[in-house]
Design goal:
single chain, 325 residues, alpha/beta, TIM Barrel, 8-stranded parallel beta sheet, two-stranded antiparallel sheet, 14 helices, globular
């Protein structure tokens, strides 16, 4: 098949065909297990509803059993839930929900380090081994950019650092990248994960891109900063594009900037187009990272996530640095 025709075919495979293609790969040899470091869970049918339910395409609750049905055939063996609710009580709700399914290896919750009650909440949630850290950025009226000048906020981050917690950031913009640098300066041992970097890079004009690239090079030099290669998928006429050539330039830039030890996988399921396209998201990542060799692919799909989040396996299918070197 000519290369152009092959790329056209790969760029238009429906979800069912992609699932079969991934299954064939899984059956062709010892598969690389995948830890999905970015999914959302919610139940909009609760009496109190849910402040976020990822849009009208989510007509049923996003709960672990629904995710497992979609993810397990793709080689995903574990997932980390990233909070998408500003309600403080939903930290407890989601911990109860993930406890019921061993596929779920952790939760990134929602707490505000600048609040007087932060220490109490952190002490309380830290006792649950599934509570791995918090998300803070520019969601829910929060501003990481402004809070980096707040001594109380930095003190809260230092408490997280002492507790071994991780900080996820949302959602990337150049000013947020600058704020991450400042946080890293003030809490150098705090593990920070920058979410959805590809989505930001695609939005920037040439001037913004040059500025962002300089910031990314600085971040790459910080040993505790990780990048979540998520929200990279592109959709055209309602169909996910999976042609590897489409994604290679941007993924090359991220890989060459951060190297193979700083990148982790996240699907962003079931947000926006991710709700119907988990097979495509996995295939895009698999095509690119397997081209870098099995060792680099293993780091991206699971090894780096252990370092970034310090999650502990709950199921024999989940890999371990101790067991696998």
């Amino acid at each position: 098949m000519p290369d152009v025709a092959r790329r056209s075919l790969l760029g238009s495979l429906p979800a069912a065909a992609l699932s079969r293609r991934i299954a064939d790969h899984q059956n062709s040899g010892k598969p690389i297990p995948i830890i999905d470091c970015h999914i959302h869970l919610f139940d909009q049918t609760r009496p109190q509803g849910a402040p976020y339910s990822a849009g009208p395409r989510n007509r049923e609750p996003a709960l672990p059993a629904r995710y497992r049905r979609l993810a397990a055939p793709l080689g995903i063996v574990g997932a980390i839930k990233v909070e998408a609710s500003p309600w403080i009580e939903d930290n407890l709700w989601v911990l109860h929900v993930v406890e019921t399914d061993s596929m779920m290896v952790g939760v990134i919750g929602n707490l505000q380090p600048e609040k007087p009650e932060f220490r109490e909440y952190l002490d309380r949630y830290h006792k649950n081994r599934l509570f791995l850290g918090i998300r803070y950025g520019n969601l829910w009226g929060y501003s990481l950019v402004k809070q980096t000048a707040n001594p109380g906020f930095i003190e809260g981050l230092k408490l997280m650092q002492q507790a071994g917690m991780a900080l996820d950031t949302a959602n990337p913009r150049p000013d947020l990248l600058e704020a991450v640098l400042r946080v890293s300066d003030k809490a150098p041992d705090l593990r920070i994960i920058v979410d959805h970097l590809p989505a930001m890079m695609l939005r920037l004009d040439s001037e913004q891109k040059a500025s962002a690239e300089a910031l990314l090079r600085e971040l790459a030099a910080r040993p505790k900063v990780f990048i979540k290669v998520s929200a990279a998928m592109r959709v055209e006429n309602g169909r996910a594009l999976t042609d590897p050539a489409l994604y290679k330039p941007l993924l090359d830039q991220i890989f060459e900037t951060f190297g193979e030890d700083k990148l982790v996988f996240g699907s962003d399921w079931p947000n926006a187009d991710a709700v119907d396209n988990l097979p495509a998201i996995v295939q895009i990542a698999r095509d690119y990272f397997l081209s870098k060799g099995k060792a680099a692919a293993e780091k991206y799909f699971w090894r780096n996530s252990v370092t970034a989040y310090r999650w502990i396996g709950r199921d024999p299918s989940q890999p371990s640095l101790d067991r696998r070197g």
